[in-house]
Amino acid sequence: AQAQAEEQRIINFEAEQKQRRQKLAKHEAIKQARQIDLKYKSLEAEQKRMMTHQRSALLDLQWRLDIEDRSERAQERVDKFMAQRDKDMALGRSGDAEREGKRQRVYNQAKQLLASRT
Prior knowledge:
By secondary structure, this protein is an all-alpha fold. It contains two helices and no strands.
């Protein structure tokens, strides 16, 4: 009877140990799943940050190119005006007052545009 009781205790002890191991394994699996989920979420957030950064950089580049293009066009207008003025002076013409006023306005506008862009 005592040997049976001892054997029953050993069986119960082994069953308890098995249950504890299963419980530990379950908790470990849950813990690992949470870590994987956290890692996935952090990678997802990092990817969103990178996409936002890339989009921002692209918009900035587009803005800079647009300004550069406007500056080039303004410079072309200034150069064209200066060439016409030099040509008129070389020919000894002072030019029509209205035309000269218009040229002066175009020149001033182009100059202002250049100054505001640089």
